[in-house]
C-alpha cells in the first residue's frame, strides 16, 4: 500500500545513514527487581530527569494500586486498559531517545517479564540496599544472563539504613557469578547519606534534598580536600573502602559488560533522586544502542536493513469498548511508518499498520514513525504471536523461537458447561498464544482437559476470569500435583511415559515435550538412576 503520512512518502526508503543515526540515538532497556525494591519509583525519576514528568503531575502508578490483590489487578487492568501491563515509556535525555520497557510489577507475572526481556538491549537491576539480592532478582537475572543482556546495577534506598556496601558487592559476585564494578561509591548512609564519589573522576558529588524528591536533586561537585574537611568520618570510611576496591575490583571493561559478565554498580536513592542522574548517564554512555539481531538462521540482520520487528507481547481487550488485540513490536531494523505495507507471522500475511500506537505511561497516541529500538503497538493485528517477525511486505524475516520458561504451577482445566466446549477450546488456545498461561496436552487428555501451566498461580486467576467473561466458557481448574517440569525428547518420553510418578505432556504451542514431576526428589532419583534420559532444565527455574 502506498500512501502519504504527514507529507512524507511512505514508499521512499529512508537513507541507511538516517536509520543508523536514529538507532545510535536510542537505548532500549528494562528495569528488573524484586517487588518493592523501587522499580516504580526509579521509573518515575527517570521520567522526571527526562523532563517527561513534571512535579506533582502524578506518577506511573498510584500508591494504592501497587498493593493490588489479584481481583483488583483485573479490575484495574480493565479500567485502565493498556496501562497496567503497558508496554513502554519513551522519553528523551541528553539528545537520546530512551525506551524503558515496562515489566509487570507483580512477581507472579514473571513470564510476561521474561518476554519483555527478549526485546531489550540492556537492563537495570535494582537492589534494595537493606536486602541485597532477593528471589525475584535472581530469577530475572538468570534470564538476562541467558540472553547475554548487559546489566547495570543500582543499589537503591541508600537514604535508609543499609547493609555494608562491600558485602553487597560480594553477594552479587557470589550469588550471580557476575563481576560487580562500582562506578559510584556512597558517602554516608541513611540520614547521613550526602553524596557519591564518582570513581572515574574521583570527584565527590554532593546532593541536596528537595521536598519529597519531586524535583531534580541539586548537585555540587566537591574536591577531595574540601570533602575531607566537610564530610568528616563518612568521607574517611568511603576513602578506605575505595582503596580496597581499587586493589580488588576488576576494570570497567565495556566489552565484558556487553557480554553480560560484568556489571557497573551505582549506589543511590530513587526516593530522594540521589544518584539518579549518574545512573541515567551510564545508561546513555554505556548501554549498547540497538544493533544487528540474529535471525532464525543465525545471520545478523543489520539495523539499516529494510523494516523488521519482533512481537514480544500480545494483549487482548485493552479497550473495554472494543474487543481488541494489540501486538507489541520492537523495531529491529529499518524505519516504521504508519500505513506502510508489512506482513508477519508464520503465514506471512499482510498486517495493517493504520492503527499503530505508541504507549507512553497511560496514554496511547498514534505512532507515525519508529526506528530500531522503538516499540509500537499494532491494534487488531490478528494472528500475530509472541516471537513472530513483522517485516516489509515481500521481504520475509524469521526470528529464533522464543524460549519457554519453567512452569512451577499446574492446573487441570475443564469446561463446566458442556455446551461451551468449543468456546473453551478456542479460549484456552488464545490465552496460550498470548502467553497468559501455557497449555499442555496429555496424550490421553486431549483438549477437553488440558493442563494449564504457569510461572505464578496468579496467572490462573486471569485465565479463569477471561475464559468466563471473554469467551463465555465457565471453567473448573482442578489442582494438579506437579511441581517441576523438564524438557525431554521423543525417545526419553517413551520411557518416561511408562514410569510412575512422571507425566509426559506436550506443549500446544510448538509441540515441545515436557516431563512433569510431583517432587524434585523423585526427579533427582530418576536422573541418578537413568542418566541416559533427556531431562533439560528450563529457563527461569528458581
Ligand atoms: P517496586 O515498583 O519495585 O515494587 O517498588 P516501588 O517503587 O513501588 O517502591 C516500594 C517502596 O519503597 C515504596 O514505599 C517506595 O516509596 C519506597 N522506595 C523506593 N525507592 C526508595 C528509596 O530510594 N528510599 C526509600 N527510603 N524508599 C524508597 P511505600 O511505603 O510502598 O510507598 P510510599 O508510601 O513510600 O509511596
Q: What is the SS-derived class? A: alpha+beta
Q: Flag low-confidence runs.
A: 1-11, 54-85
Cα-atom radius of gyration: 25 Å
Cα shape? globular
Write up this protein:
28% of the residues lie in helices and 28% in strands. The chain contains 15 helices and 32 strands. Helix 5 (110-117) packs parallel to helix 6 (135-146) and helix 8 crosses helix 9 (233-248). Strands 20-19-25-16-17-24-21-22 form an 8-stranded antiparallel beta sheet. A 7-stranded mixed beta sheet has the order 4-5-3-6-7-13-8, sandwiched between helices. It is α+β, with helices and mostly antiparallel strands and 542 residues long. Strand 4 and strand 5 (96-101) form a beta hairpin. Bound molecules: guanosine-5',3'-tetraphosphate (G4P).
Which short descriptors sum up this protein?
542 residues, alpha+beta, eight-stranded antiparallel β-sheet, 15 helices, disordered N terminus, binds guanosine-5',3'-tetraphosphate
A few lines on this structure:
With 542 residues, this protein is an alpha+beta fold. Helix content is 28%, strand content 28%. Strands 20-19-25-16-17-24-21-22 form an 8-stranded antiparallel beta sheet. Strands 4-5-3-6-7-13-8 form a 7-stranded mixed beta sheet, sandwiched between helices. Strands 29-26-28-27-31-32-30 form a 7-stranded antiparallel beta sheet.
